[in-house]
């Protein structure tokens, strides 16, 4: 039995013997995913080159939304890495390349005279993906926002304000999209209306069901929207409020505590093989299911129960299972619908090629420098490796309010 346990542990940690470091692998996978969007958009060729894969050809045509979906979501995930800026290392020069792409891409996305000018107001979907783009600026204020020309900044602000004409939005996590855009405007312009933030925060505190989980509107949904949207946008909105005198900034501490509990739950979802339960809608967002755990690592706020080494090891195992699967990309490097490779029947009617780039949100720890303990710590067994390997040191899990 002991021999089997040892062999099992060696199998689950086999990736650590690779000559590449974990960070090298993460960077390689991130830029592979990012390149088609940023290289084409920087050259005003995104609308020409980006495919529109939909699982259900009879559903609403998503071509109107696909470009902002892909760009906004990708930027929210890649922003912390870009925020590290340029240096003389190989990685630092890669960041220079993708920062140059990003600045040109932003201008083309918000310039009404551009071939790749994006839709910020037709239909409801632009509210969602403008919010992810706003989140990117909040996560990389120096490199993505402050380094933009003044004229481009104004075009961004104008584009974001157009989303406030979108009405009759779902009474759910969608409230946080308006709140995130409003938080960006408060931080980066003369806008000073907190209405959307206040409503989003109050409703989500009403919707808290306990143990680190929020319902998505009136009813709880067993899916990963607590990680795709709810916890991360609450944290980012409140990070802006903390710089003001607004009374609701007092919600910050309890919001972080709840996110940390959810981070513990997410870490325990990772099986010894690097898989996790695929449950609920939008499962094809892949690595985005672990955004909360990734964001806590980025914030250096992992709960005391989780070490840097075990979180990095667990997330690396998951990322490799998701992003290195055959069929994840088409022949031109665009993401395909699926969780493990191409699985188009797993998509809801609102899913298209652009939607898939929410997977970038799992890559947030790349915003920590390469010498940070998250990257330099020895890989450790994550919780399910310990439990299913018979490790007697594992402690009981417990509910929190």
From TrEMBL:
Alphabetized UniProt keyword annotations: Signal
Leader sequence segment: 1-19
InterPro entries: DUF2264_N, UCP014753
Identification of the protein by name: DUF2264 domain-containing protein
Occurrences of domain DUF2264 (ranges): 22-382
Origin superkingdom: Bacteria
Record flagged with keyword Cell membrane: no
Lineage: Bacteria, Pseudomonadati, Bacteroidota, Flavobacteriia, Flavobacteriales
Protein species of origin: Polaribacter haliotis
């Amino acid at each position: 039995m002991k021999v089997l346990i040892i062999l099992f542990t060696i199998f689950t940690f086999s990736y650590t013997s690779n000559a590449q470091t974990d960070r090298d692998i993460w960077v390689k996978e991130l830029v592979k995913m990012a390149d088609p969007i940023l290289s084409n958009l920087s050259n005003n060729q995104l609308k020409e080159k980006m495919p529109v894969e939909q699982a259900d050809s009879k559903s609403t045509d998503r071509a109107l939304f696909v470009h902002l979906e892909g760009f906004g979501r990708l930027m929210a995930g890649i922003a912390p890495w870009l925020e590290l800026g340029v240096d003389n290392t190989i990685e630092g020069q890669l960041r220079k390349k993708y920062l140059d792409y990003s600045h040109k891409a932003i201008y083309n996305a918000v310039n009404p005279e551009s071939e790749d000018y994006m839709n910020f107001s037709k239909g409801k979907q632009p509210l969602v993906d403008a919010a992810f783009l706003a989140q990117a600026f909040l996560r990389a204020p120096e490199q993505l926002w402050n380094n933009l020309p003044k004229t481009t900044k104004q075009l961004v602000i104008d584009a974001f304000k157009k989303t406030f004409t979108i009405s009759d939005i779902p009474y759910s996590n969608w409230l946080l999209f308006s709140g995130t855009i409003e938080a960006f405007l408060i931080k980066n312009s003369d806008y000073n209306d907190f209405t959307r933030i206040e409503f989003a925060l109050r409703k989500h505190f009403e919707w808290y069901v306990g143990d680190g989980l929020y319902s998505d509107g009136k009813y709880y949904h067993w899916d990963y929207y607590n990680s795709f949207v709810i916890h991360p946008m609450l944290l980012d909105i409140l990070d802006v409020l903390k710089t003001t005198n607004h009374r609701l900034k007092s919600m910050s501490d309890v919001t972080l505590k709840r996110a940390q509990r959810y981070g513990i739950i997410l870490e325990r979802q990772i099986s010894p093989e690097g898989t996790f339960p695929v449950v609920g809608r939008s499962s094809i967002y892949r690595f985005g299911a672990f955004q909360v755990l990734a964001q806590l690592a980025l914030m250096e706020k992992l709960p005391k129960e989780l070490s840097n080494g075990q979180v990095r090891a667990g997330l690396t195992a998951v990322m490799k299972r998701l992003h290195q699967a055959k069929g994840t990309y088409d022949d031109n490097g665009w993401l395909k619908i699926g969780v493990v490779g191409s699985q188009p029947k797993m998509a809801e009617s609102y899913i298209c090629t652009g939607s898939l780039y929410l997977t970038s949100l799992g890559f947030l720890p790349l915003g920590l420098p390469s010498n940070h303990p998250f990257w330099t710590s020895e890989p450790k067994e994550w919780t399910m490796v310990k439990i299913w390997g018979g490790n007697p040191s594992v402690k009981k899990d417990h509910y929190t309010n």
